[in-house]
Amino acid sequence: ESTAAFHQLEQLRNDILEAGVDGPELAINRFPAADRQHLRQLILQHHREREAHKSPAASRKLFRYLKDLQESCANLDDV
Fold this sequence. Notes:
Layout: H1 2-19, H2 23-30, H3 36-51, H4 57-78
């Protein structure tokens, strides 16, 4: 189950990054509590890193942020 959730988050991250300026909406549809501005910043940082051929730090940050959102949603479901 956790492997499937991991792969789903990876796919969501990739979809968000590919969608560019529309990417935050994909995350907000899944996680309504997501911070639109933070998502935009990570997407822009990702694109700058790609253009500069740098390591994908923003991509990893986005994944961690999505994971945190997923965990906080799971914790709310437990209450």
